[in-house]
Amino acid sequence: MTIVAFPKEIHEHEPRVAMDLASMKKLIGLGATVKIEAGLGQSIHIQDSAYVALGAQVENDRAKLLAEADMIVRIRKPEIAEIKGFKKGAIHLSYLDPFNEKDLIMGFKDQGIQAISMEMIPRTTKAQKMDVLSSQASLAGYVAVLTAATQLNKIFPMMMTPAGTISPSRVFVIGAGVAGLQAIATAKRMGARVEAFDTRPVVEEQVQSLGAKFVKVDLGETGQTTGGYAKALTDEQLAKQREVMAKHCALSDVVITTAQLFGRKAPIIITDAMLKDMKPGSVVIDLAVETGGNVEGSKLNEVVDLYGVKVVGFSNWPGQVPVHASQMLAANFYNLIEEYWDKEQKVFKMNLEDEILKDCVITHDGTIQSKSIREFYEKN
Question: Is the pTM of this model over 0.90?
Answer without folding.
Answer: yes
